[in-house]
Automatic annotation (TrEMBL):
Domain ChrR-like cupin stretches: 110-200
Gene3D superfamilies found in the cross-reference section: Anti-sigma factor, zinc-finger domain, Jelly Rolls
Lineage of source species: Bacteria, Pseudomonadati, Pseudomonadota, Gammaproteobacteria, Lysobacterales
SUPFAM superfamilies, per database record: RmlC-like cupins
Protein name: ChrR family anti-sigma-E factor
Length: 221
């Protein structure tokens, strides 16, 4: 399935520059492994970045410039060699395997996760990464309406299985939802398999409404 919702330019450039926190970069690399469109854009960003460095820093020694180029190429290699996300699972044993970039946070398999009940047909696993960014793995039953919520800062989500729709469109496995703080949304999951997605939250979610306020402590953010 070709993704239709992509990383935004800021995320791409920040990733290319190595400026994203590792937790957010892990979610971005999940999207790169699913999306040729964004991989091509990443190549462009890295070429442009390299050209800018050479133009703006002509006094840099060749040694420094080549170290920088190597760093960029290594970053690119890593972006290309990350494990395929759950969407490309072929058999039942693969189905249980956690994408490689998520394993440091969530362990090796989905079946070993300690899902916690969140209400509204949803379960979650929440992990605070080493740089303080919260990673949230969500599993939401089909046909469920989530509380309306906004974001105090950007949130990057990759959909691993199933689908949902909100005011921004229809999101399915392989798609990224790269949201800024302006957006307030209410995802509704599609019929079919449970929707599993993973988010890097730069800052706590902000839920309006009594129901959502009740849920917010559950996130512990
Ligand atoms: Zn993309």
């Amino acid at each position: 399935m070709t993704p239709r919702h992509h990383l935004d330019a800021t995320t791409l450039v920040s990733y290319a520059a190595g400026a994203l926190p590792p937790e957010t970069a892990a979610i971005a690399s999940l999207h790169f492994s699913a999306c040729g469109h964004c991989r091509a854009k990443l190549l462009d960003a890295e070429r442009i970045g390299g050209a800018l460095v050479e133009r703006q820093l002509p006094t840099w020694s060749e040694g420094k410039a080549s170290i920088l180029r190597e760093t960029m190429l290594r970053a690119l290699d890593e972006a290309h060699t990350v494990a395929a996300p759950a969407v490309h699972r072929a058999d039942r044993s693969d189905e249980d395997a956690m994408p490689e970039v998520l394993q440091p946070y969530f362990g090796k398999t989905f079946s070993a996760l300690k899902w916690r009940w969140m209400g509204s047909g949803a379960h979650y696993v929440r992990v605070v990464g080493p740089s303080g960014v919260v990673l949230l793995l969500l599993r939401i039953a089909p046909g469920k309406r989530m509380p309306v919520h906004g974001h105090q800062a950007g949130e990057l989500t990759q959909i691993l299985q199933g689908a949902y729709h909100d005011a921004l469109g229809y999101f399915q496995a392989g798609d990224a939802a790269d949201l800024d703080s302006e957006i307030e949304h209410q995802p509704v999951t599609a019929p079919g398999p449970a929707c599993i997605c993973v988010s890097a939250l730069e800052k706590p979610l902000r839920f309006p409404g009594w129901f959502a306020r009740k849920l917010q402590p559950v996130f512990g953010v």
